[in-house]
Design brief:
By secondary structure, this protein is mostly helical. Helix content is 65%, strand content 0%.
């Protein structure tokens, strides 16, 4: 709660930030990078190779997948706490696939308390009918948020009102990203996709951006509902379920920076270890690979980043298109499998 430069983060993140400031900057940064790197490579190794496999096994594959890809390098370059949130989501996924749903719910709750968008992953509990675990995630996230607010200067009520009214998102740069300036965030939001089109075609001056933003938020929320229903009632393959949920939490918010591409590791790891195979796997593999590398082959001449220069490349548009394409392939294949299973049973019963 700061009248001059309000934090754009959720309360729990501010608590973590405060703890980090208790040590000298270089020391805290070294500890942070060491911790997240060790956690990332360890959990990656366990998921891909198993708990009993020696760490040296598959290291020539695990290290490049984890450390030599664009999402990790970009996030470390920014020093953004998104990577810590990702570690909690990685632990959520690990315990989820081990069917320890209660513990997975705890780690998901911490991620939700850090930034709200991982809340879409509670949908993953619905196909399993794990309603208690869903409640655990929401409940613990609420407790962590309220508990963090109680620690802040200015009093709980003032800080709660500050957060409730979205005052922490009035920061000038965030407003510019969604406003009428020719400024966009280097990220994977569909809102950014449309704004780049407006800027480059000269339509930005003719579009009422506040009205467009209002419409976008409503349409994005409505878009998630059928997607969630598809995940719950139709899709049976876990990696596809998680992919659709992850892509929705990256694409649908109006602000979604490139460091959020870290979360693409979640469905990618599940895809790698999945026993289910299909004819479209080569396309899925290709899309995952393209999402893991930079694609800055050309830059938009009229679009500026928050650095005030024309360094927004076609990679921004390509990442969005790639995730939409994979989502479409998953839905088409899932619907086909569902229809085949349904009518296959009918024909067998008739016989």
């Amino acid at each position: 709660f700061n009248e001059i430069v309000p934090s754009a983060q959720f309360p729990l993140v501010n608590v973590i930030d405060y703890l980090i400031t208790l040590l000298p900057l270089k020391v805290s940064l070294a500890i942070f990078i060491t911790f997240i790197s060790t956690a990332f490579i360890s959990i990656t190794h366990i998921i891909l190779w198993g708990e009993k496999a020696p760490l040296i096994r598959g290291l020539h594959i695990t290290l490049p997948i984890a450390f030599l890809t664009y999402p990790f390098l970009f996030t470390v370059d920014r020093g953004n706490l998104e990577i810590l949130l990702f570690i909690f989501l990685l632990l959520f996924m690990y315990f989820y696939i081990r069917e320890n749903y209660a513990l997975s719910a705890v780690f998901l709750a911490v991620a939700i308390a850090m930034k709200l968008f991982p809340v879409v992953l509670v949908v993953a509990y619905l196909p399993k009918k794990k309603y208690g675990e869903l409640a655990i995630s929401i409940g613990i996230a609420a407790i962590l948020t309220m508990g963090s607010l109680a620690l802040f200067k200015g009093g709980f009520v003032a800080n709660f009102n500050f957060l409730l009214h979205g005052s922490n998102f009035s920061f000038a740069t965030l407003v510019s990203f969604v406003g009428a300036d020719n400024l966009v965030q280097r990220g994977v939001s569909l809102f950014t996709f449309f704004k780049i089109i407006f800027i480059e075609t000269g339509l930005l001056e003719k579009v009422n951006m506040p009205q467009f933003l209002s419409t976008y938020v409503k349409v994005a929320a409505l878009t998630f509902l059928p997607l969630a229903a598809y995940v719950v009632f139709i899709e049976k393959i876990l990696w596809r379920q998680i992919a659709l949920l992850v892509f929705s939490m990256l694409l649908l918010p109006q602000i979604s920076a490139d460091y959020k591409l870290m979360h693409v590791y979640l469905p990618m790891y599940l895809f790698i270890i999945s026993a289910h195979r299909s004819r479209l796997d080569i396309f899925y593999l290709l899309i995952f690979g393209l999402l893991m590398i930079p694609k800055d082959y050309a830059y938009f001449p009229k679009t500026l980043s928050d650095a005030g220069v024309n360094d927004i490349s076609i990679s921004v548009m390509m990442n969005i298109i790639l995730m939409i394409l994979m989502s479409m392939l998953i839905v088409v294949e899932g619907l086909r499998d569902s229809l085949f299973e349904r009518f296959g049973r009918l024909s067998k019963s008739e016989i």
